[in-house]
Design brief:
Layout: H1 2-11, H2 13-31, H3 41-44, H4 64-100, H5 104-119, H6 132-140, H7 147-153
Keywords: Membrane, Transmembrane, Transmembrane helix
Protein name: Palmitoyltransferase zdhhc16a
Amino acid sequence: MTLGCVYCSISGRNLFLDAYHALERFKHSDLEKPGVPVTGIGLLIGLLPSGQANFQTPAPPYTFQERMIHKSIIYMWVLTSTVGVALGALTVWHAVLISRGETSIERHINKKERQRLAAWGKVYRNHFNYGKLNNWKVFFGVEKKSHWVTRILLPSGHPPHGDGLTWDIFPVRKDLTPV
């Protein structure tokens, strides 16, 4: 989702700038028109030259449909840019959590445990942190080299380790999976 928003923001930048400048030109063209349009009571008091029954105005430089298209492009770009920034921040945050082997809730619990044990002069160790690379391997379910393609790049229906309620604590090793 983050990559999609960034892609739309980058690829739509020129469209956004063109649409924005077109609307700005339309706003300023209204201010530059000479004369006063004749409406309502002006027709009754004879502001029009004799023999003319209606006031002819030139066609607007942009139709209603064109203005709506320009506004839609601006809305699309602003929306995808802001959502891209917000999702980008969340993506980076969760990448950090995966690298630490924590969930959002576990981060708060582990922080309190570190503070509690630091008061006693002890060091807290998260039992589910296997190192950055191994945490990502556990997250994606990578067990051998071919899994980088079959489980990450392609859709995968492989079951996760365990039953989802309990987790095994792996013994401390340099590399959990030799990939």
